[in-house]
Write a structure and sequence with these properties.
Helices cover 17% and strands 49% of the residues. The protein is an alpha+beta fold and 477 residues long.
């Protein structure tokens, strides 16, 4: 098997290890304190909570649209090269590869009695890695097929569209209940960038046409840019200084940014609830340790001229000819490195939902009797719909979720979801939250229908965590 095929296998296989940050199972699952991170205006009934450090929020979300590993490795008698060709012909330049990982370092929340107990404060730190790329269809075809059978076909260099970052987020939120119908919240964030790279807004093409002085003429028109932040410091630190540089940049020693989350919960009628939130309305200003690589220019090549008389006389000038050609390419389409500052917007996320609650009512205070009136109790079951959207460099990505929530006991709550998005039309998820004494444990996972055959999964998300929380022991307002 050729090296080219090995590269394609590595790329296609690695893609699957890389959804769009939709936390449909966590959103509005208010028995879990981390739901405040998806909606700072969520309805919270705790006196306080504290996440167990490094164990309160472990989250991984990955997806690829357009194909899966089964298309590549299924034992169906189709030639391997034909499988790759089928994938490349069926995939779109708007298909995507996505990876998001988050790890909570700590998360604490408490209710303050100063505002008659209506305000709930929360703060913490979490680490995040986000990678997103549109599939570079034209470049993949050019790499696999070459241009021999693509005369007069332009290959679009704008297909190259990739973003990736690693950062630490410091956050502080206020959640306030205005009255029985309305709760709203605000969360402020400071971003500390560890590493950032992005190449978007590229332009240009590569095309092969019939030549005049030779059989073929190759034409390139390129305007490409790769921006990086933090890469140079890691390169200079090397393996020995990696951890030290990582800690420095993770804890406010890198490029900094500012962001906000906004959210609300509104109950227009007793059994109806409407929610909404905006997350990561913010930016990071990359001002130091910045390198931008650019390739810009135009060039035509009609082959390398062979010095036949010199070859016959034994004076081989071929190497000089090739070197001159490459020098000419570098002169006409130069690679430059500059150190311009840049601002990187965070991917803005929108959540909204409507929910209808029904069934026998339960007390808000789990494990205790309550002599409160019926309006001070909550229903055991709920059904609803949620809309999610995230901004990306070409078009936003959307997801629609139908969900059902139920409280099986005073200490066990379930949520199941059915989601349709760019990655799948049959995504079934299940979330469990349990309270044993003051210990809260939750586990959330989706795409359960395909879990038995990992090769057929286009996307997958998993989240779990441990918290210590104290429910309300009395009505504070």
């Amino acid at each position: 098997m050729s090296k080219k095929h090995l590269v394609i296998i590595f790329f296609l296989g690695g893609v699957v290890l890389n959804q769009a940050q939709n936390k449909q199972l966590l959103y509005d699952f208010n028995e879990i304190p981390q739901s405040l991170l998806t909606n700072p205006g969520a309805k919270i009934n705790n006196r306080w909570h504290a996440g167990i450090p490094f164990l309160s929020g472990i989250y991984v979300n990955a997806g690829v649209s357009g194909f899966d590993l089964n298309d590549l490795f299924a034992d169906n008698g189709v030639n391997f090269n034909d499988k790759i060709r089928n994938i490349l012909s069926g995939i779109s330049r708007n298909d995507v590869i996505s990876l998001n990982q988050q790890l909570e370092i700590f998360n604490i929340g408490f209710r303050k009695d100063g505002w008659r107990g209506r305000a709930y404060y929360s703060f913490g730190i979490y680490e995040e890695i986000d990678f997103f790329a549109y599939f570079p269809k034209d470049l993949a075809i050019l790499a696999f097929e070459g241009n021999g059978n693509a005369i007069n076909r332009p290959f679009n260099l704008a297909d190259l569209n990739v973003k990736g970052e690693a950062l630490t987020v410091f956050h502080f939120g206020i959640n306030k209940k205005v009255n029985e119908k309305l709760t709203y919240g605000l969360r402020a964030k400071i971003y500390s960038s560890i590493l950032d790279f992005n190449t978007t807004g590229n332009r240009g093409s590569f095309i092969t046409v019939d030549g005049q002085d030779n059989f073929l003429r190759h034409q390139i028109d390129a305007d490409l840019k790769l921006r990086t932040s933090g890469y140079n410091s890691f390169r200079e630190a090397g393996s020995e200084g990696f951890l030290g540089n990582f800690r420095k940049r993770a804890f406010l020693g890198g490029n900094l940014g500012l962001g906000f989350d906004l959210g609300f919960t509104y109950e227009p009628k007793e059994q109806w609830t409407v929610t909404g939130s905006l997350q990561d309305l913010g930016f990071i200003w990359h001002a130091n340790d910045v390198e931008t690589y650019t390739i810009e220019g135009q060039f035509e090549l009609e082959g390398v001229e062979l010095p036949f008389p010199d070859l016959i006389d034994g004076n081989d000038g071929l190497e000089e000819n090739i070197d001159g050609t490459f020098d000419n390419i570098q002169e006409q389409v130069p690679l430059d490195t500059i150190s311009n500052q840049y601002i990187r917007l965070r991917p803005l996320k929108l959540n909204s939902s409507v929910k209808y609650s029904f069934g026998e009512k339960k007390t808000k205070i789990k494990g205790e009797e309550c002599d409160c009136k019926a309006k001070d109790k909550e229903y055991k079951n709920a059904v609803g719909a949620q809309l999610f959207a995230i901004g990306r460099s070409r078009t936003p990505l959307f997801a629609l979720t139908l969900f059902y929530q139920t409280s099986l006991t005073n200490f066990l709550d379930l949520k199941t979801t059915y989601t349709v998005d760019k990655f799948s039309a049959k995504n079934i998820g299940l979330g469990v939250s349990t309270d044993i004494g003051n210990l809260n444990f939750y586990i959330l996972a989706d795409n359960l229908l395909d879990i038995s055959n990992v090769a057929k999964i286009n996307s997958f998300s998993f989240q779990m965590g441990f918290n210590i929380k104290l429910p309300e022991t009395e009505k504070p307002y």
